[in-house]
Specification:
485 residues, alpha/beta, 5-stranded mixed β-sheet, 21 helices, 12 strands, 47% helix, 12% strand, disordered N terminus
């Protein structure tokens, strides 16, 4: 009897399935969580909790999900298995993927088992969802290399979560598995696939999808490979259901069409009720979806976006979005988020919510050391902290000053500020360069110098780690590494 109670609490109070219960529709439909959730203090269960946080956007199919899913996800019930797929179109995940990972982690925290599927096979075709033209084709070797990067990134996220965000004695943490759909799709004979799964999927349904319709009307049209993409993703769901007992597929809001195809295939071939849940898409201030295609991706791989850059992306979020992001991107309890926002209203100049958001996400993605690195870089760059600058590693210096020229110099007796600036090619020769210093346009390690004849001093102009950070004007940095000190 607990399931209907929870369905009413989450469905009607939070609007997950829309308004009052209606007669069952002739075909499965989905309903949007279009209403702002009301706080139901003490509400139990994964579905209610993520409905409150706004992480679960749509659930499909509406009728059977409303009747069954809250009960299946209630605490104390046998664990379900949920999965989400990630196509390796690049060698790293980005922030746009992070909410899908958060959904997996919340399932895991509720004691359910989760599977992250790297699309080593589907990436060869390219998902047409939300795209105006076909993706640039990737070679098999490129896909394999990208898949290795995604598996490593997903593994770090699961490991950082387990070590840093799951307290000992906090209950059962569900199992997590990393799989690659090339392992089953790559071995599936074409005729067997078409005669089996292909015979259960309806052309009319696939053609009616919005993404398919938009592409068919475009001048470029749609390739057969792209058209078959939903069928292959649907087969993923079938395979995972048959071999791993998977009953829930997670995905971004733009994946609902593919999720519906998976539901159709699994239910027709097995008769089992399965479900789909979507999470919101993260967009830029201009409304563009964050990602590689839009050219605005914030990557989760340190080689592409440093911990400092990731930290700064979140610390710069505006007040009108930061509360939403605290609910979506962190595990902070809602009551604590309320308190954080109340304190922010009193002391907005401290940017408390933004700093907490940035710290939580950076720690999840890069671990405790990654967060400390981001804080060191922040202090060195924005607070002119000599201590932070001295503690920075070569890697951090390179990450912080990616575009900054660097130079390796020998310290000569009597070498002064003017000598340093000229050897680093930081100022022009002649009187204009000399005047640049006297006018206060040069600083070393965050300290302005105005006398070009000042002799360089170890411990002041040259730090203990053998580095000097030279700044010309407001934004032009030069990293100096001193040899044989």
């Amino acid at each position: 009897m607990a399931a209907p109670t929870l369905a009413r609490r989450c469905g009607r109070a939070a609007g997950l399935w829309g308004g009052p219960r209606r007669a069952p529709p002739p075909l499965p439909l989905r309903r949007r969580a279009h209403e702002r959730p009301r706080r139901a203090r003490g509400a139990g269960g994964l579905l209610a909790a993520q409905c409150e946080r706004g992480l679960f956007q749509e659930v499909f199919p509406a009728q059977s999900a409303e009747e069954q899913l809250p009960g299946l996800l209630e605490p104390g019930r046998p664990p379900l298995t949920a999965y989400c797929g990630f196509d390796p179109t690049a060698e790293s995940l980005h922030v746009g993927h992070l909410l899908a990972v958060m959904a997996l982690l919340h399932f895991q925290r509720a004691g359910h088992n989760v599977i992250a599927v790297v699309g080593g096979a589907t990436a060869r075709l390219g998902d047409p969802s939300g795209r105006e033209r076909a993706r640039e084709p990737l070679s098999a070797e490129q896909v394999r290399a990208h898949a290795r990067g995604l598996r490593a990134g997903l593994g770090r996220l699961f490991e950082n979560h387990r070590e840093l965000f799951w307290a000992a004695g906090g209950g059962r943490l569900g199992q997590a598995a990393l799989l690659d759909n090339a392992c089953w799709l790559g071995r599936q004979p074409l005729l067997d696939f078409l005669g089996g799964a292909g015979g259960r999927l309806r052309m009319g349904t696939l053609l009616s999808r919005q993404s398919c319709q938009a592409r068919l009307r475009s001048p470029e049209g749609m390739s057969l490979a792209e058209f078959l993409y939903p069928a292959l993703q649907a087969y993923d769901f079938l395979h995972l259901h048959q071999h791993h007992g998977c009953r829930v597929q997670l995905g971004g809001a733009d994946q609902m069409g593919n999720i519906m195809s998976g539901y159709e295939l699994v239910t027709k071939m097995t008769g089992t009720d399965v479900f789909g849940i979507t999470v919101p898409l993260i967009t830029s201030t201009t409304g563009d979806k964050l990602g590689k295609t839009a050219g605005n991706a914030v990557w989760l791989n340190r080689d592409k976006t440093s911990p400092f850059e990731l930290y700064q992306f979140f610390v710069r979020q505006q007040d009108n979005i930061v509360e939403k992001y605290l609910k979506l991107f962190t595990f902070i309890p809602l009551e604590e988020i309320d308190h954080i926002m109340e304190m922010h209203a009193k002391e907005p100049e401290k940017w408390g919510p933004q700093k907490r958001l940035a710290a939580e996400v950076t720690k999840l993605v890069h671990g405790r050391e990654g967060l400390e690195s981001a804080k060191r870089c922040t202090k060195a760059l924005y607070y002119s902290s000599v201590e932070a600058l001295e503690a920075m590693s070569d890697q951090e210096l390179q990450e912080l000053f990616r575009q900054a020229p660097s130079a390796e110099l020998m310290l000569e007796p009597g070498m002064n500020v003017l000598d340093l600036c000229r050897k680093a090619n930081a100022i022009p020769d002649g009187p204009s360069g000399y005047q640049k210093i006297t006018d206060g346009g040069v600083s070393i390690n965050g300290i302005r110098v105005t006398n070009p004849e000042t002799v360089l001093i170890l411990g002041q102009h040259i730090l203990k780690n053998g580095v000097s950070l030279l700044r010309i004007g407001k934004k032009n940095y030069y990293v100096i590494k001193w040899l044989q000190l």
